[in-house]
Amino acid sequence: GIYRNVRLVCTSDIHIAYGGVFVTTPAVSRDEATVRVEAEVSAPEGADYEIRNIVLGPNGRRIGEDDGDGTVSIRKPELWSTEHPHLYTLVTEIVSGGVTVDSMETRFGIRHIAWDRDKGFLLNGMPVKLLGVCMHHDMGCLGTAVHRRALERQLEILKGMGVNAIRTSHNPPAPE
Questions:
Q1: Which of 93, 108, 118, 172 could form a disulfide with 52 if both were Cys (CB 3.0 to 4.6 A apart)?
Q2: Model pTM?
Q3: Where on the phi/psi map is residue 162: left (φ > 0), alpha (ψ -120 to 50), or beta?
Q4: What is the CB neighbour count within 10 angstroms for residue 90?
């Protein structure tokens, strides 16, 4: 049966492909971060359009926009960490004939990750021991239907136990 939310997505001929926005942070410091955006657009051959990328800060205010090259510079970024999971919102718009024909919001964190053979996993330059669990898509006695608050509660309990990494198993997790 259907145990997850169902979505019907209607698009114009020119639209962002499903799962077509990919965000990376190739250069990160406490003073400035570079956000790199790759967007896959589905459009008829020869279609005329442009891609705009706008970054909203954790407070929801506009803090940056690309110059058409897919990169946005963010001054004094609030870095994402397990203790302070600051999230930004990328708004990707497809504009054709002066009209926005599609848009998509993508949440992301600005952080720097690295592996060091002596120090292990580094998050924003600090060693972090990964304490993870493997989660199935079901909610135990609640079943497989998606209950947003039950998912939040489960994550709160796991974090209280010291968990800071999750791997999902078997089926892709629900977007929630």
A1: 93
A2: 0.87
A3: left
A4: 21
Whole-angstrom Cα distance, residue 23 to residue 56? 14
Q: Which helix (H) or strand (E) holds 160?
A: helix 148-160
Sorted by sequence, the CB contacts under 8 Å of residue 152 that are 6+ apart come out as: none
Residue type, 24: T
Long-range interactions of 80-86: CB distance < 8 A, separation 24+: 80/109, 80/110, 80/111, 81/111, 81/123, 81/124, 82/123, 82/128, 82/164, 85/109, 86/58, 86/110
pLDDT tens digit at each of 176 positions of the chain: 677 888 898 999 999 999 999 999 999 999 999 999 999 999 999 999 999 999 999 999 999 999 789 999 999 999 999 989 999 999 999 999 999 999 999 999 999 999 999 999 999 999 999 999 998 878 878 888 888 899 899 999 999 999 999 998 877 788 88
